[in-house]
Design goal:
Elements lengths: L1 H21 L6 E2 L3 H19 L9 H9 L2 H24 L4 H27 L9 H8 L3 H8 L9 H10 L3 H7 L2 H24 L4 H5 L3 H18 L8 H18 L14 H22 L9 H8 L1 H23 L5 H35 L5 E2 L4
Parallel strand pairs: 1-2
Helix pairs in contact: 2-3, 2-4, 2-15, 2-16, 3-13, 4-9, 4-12, 5-17, 6-7, 7-8, 8-12, 10-12, 13-14, 16-17
Length: 394
């Protein structure tokens, strides 16, 4: 009888813990800005252009500079992700008087891991038939352990079409401790931590440049360097406190143009082969620094955009942008291989790349739609059970 009572007590305790994580006590707040999905779509398109123009990036041309500027689309993703997560956690803390950390990690796992690990599986299987895409044991371990960006520093990007996954690893590293920071620190303290992250980014950048580390990938994929964009996202969330600045349409267009110009000016931060650019902090540091207001200007230009008829296609692209980002390199590679066999010698390098991009983009969108519908959405519906502050509907 005593043993039965003990087991019943243990089962009750386990049930209580599961109930705490699985079913939030209240859902009293909602936060969704359709303009941020438009910004996600823009971030993806910037990255797509960068990788689509890859053959022009080894020469200091205007086209190559545009391509390199597109690389900062990844930084927009980092900024936006940090802003949203910090805003949602602060709302949860305000409405429930705490932050349910286990539920946070479950939400992150359900959003990121299904597609991430599915893509690793696809890459491993494809590598069995293509030596250029073989996933070695070391690479497999780095990918599975979300250590990809650090392994990339010493070994180059992941094989084949898996190389965009370095940024997923970096993002997951940031969120390893961030919910605890938001839970136990005041908004003012979060600003202080973000300032320290900014400072650490440039101290790291100075040290790596002094050591002669190459810009891409050695410095570009370094977590400490990229954390400056997460820090800026956190600062923005804390300062705005959920508010949406009311800018006029001309002002929003001015911010949009300024943001793109800042990213264009920053492109040399990831351009390794320009002999006219000294490899030191005095010349590289300002390039990284100017990308920060670039990200912020683009964010502010999109933040108050409504879900109108003209905006809906871009909102949908933002909604499926994770899949678009993961799949686009696969399609660019497949289309380039096909064009090489069919018409490679009859096309100029520029025409070849533009043709490849024109074919790969709709193929990427279609794949992203299928992935969202059949792979990601079931997990997103499950994710709702662990959500305290509602955001975008599935």
């Amino acid at each position: 009888m005593a043993g039965g009572a003990s087991r019943c007590k243990q089962m009750s305790t386990i049930a209580a813990v599961v109930n705490e994580v699985e079913r939030p006590q209240t859902r009293v707040d909602t936060f969704y800005r359709p303009g941020l999905d438009i910004l996600r779509a823009l971030a993806f398109l910037l990255v797509f252009v960068a990788h689509g123009l890859v053959s022009h990036l080894d020469q200091p041309t205007q086209l190559g500079a545009i391509g390199r500027a597109g690389e900062f689309g990844v930084c927009i993703f980092f900024f936006l992700s940090s802003y949203l997560i910090t805003e949602l956690l602060l709302r949860e803390k305000r409405e429930t008087s705490t932050i349910h950390i286990p539920a946070f990690y479950v939400r992150r796992i359900l959003r990121i891991w299904p597609l991430y690990f599915a893509m690793i599986g696809v890459g491993w299987f494809y590598g069995l038939f293509s030596p250029n895409h073989t996933v070695s044991l070391a690479w497999g371990a780095a990918l599975m352990l979300l250590f990809t960006n650090w392994y990339t520093v010493g070994h180059g990007y992941p094989p084949g079409f898996l190389f965009p996954l370095w940024s997923v690893s970096l993002e997951e590293q940031f969120y390893l401790l961030w919910p605890c920071m938001v839970k136990y620190l005041s908004p003012g303290s979060l600003l202080g931590v973000s300032t320290m992250l900014m400072t650490a980014a440039y101290l790291t950048l100075a040290r790596l440049l002094h050591q002669g580390q190459i810009l891409d990938p050695g410095i570009w994929v370094n977590s400490l360097v990229q954390f400056q964009y997460f820090a800026l996202g956190t600062m923005t969330a804390v300062v705005l406190r959920g508010r949406v600045p009311n800018f006029s349409k001309p002002m929003r267009w001015a911010l949009f143009a300024a943001g793109l110009l800042c990213l264009r000016a920053a492109q040399a931060a990831v351009y390794s082969n320009d002999p006219s650019l000294p490899h030191d902090l005095l010349h590289i540091g300002p390039r990284y620094l100017i990308a920060l207001p670039g990200c912020l200007c683009l964010f502010l230009s999109c933040l108050q955009l409504p879900a109108g008829r003209l905006q809906k296609p871009f909102i949908y692209l933002g909604k499926i942008s994770y899949g678009l980002y993961v799949f686009h390199v696969l399609w660019l590679g497949l289309v380039r291989d096909l064009l090489t066999h069919l018409a490679g010698s009859h096309l100029s390098p520029l025409a070849f790349q533009l043709t490849a991009m024109a074919i790969a983009l709709p193929a990427t969108v279609l794949t992203g739609m299928l992935s969202y519908q059949y792979l990601e959405s079931p997990f997103l519906r499950l994710k709702k059970r662990f959500t305290f502050v509602r955001s975008r509907p599935v």
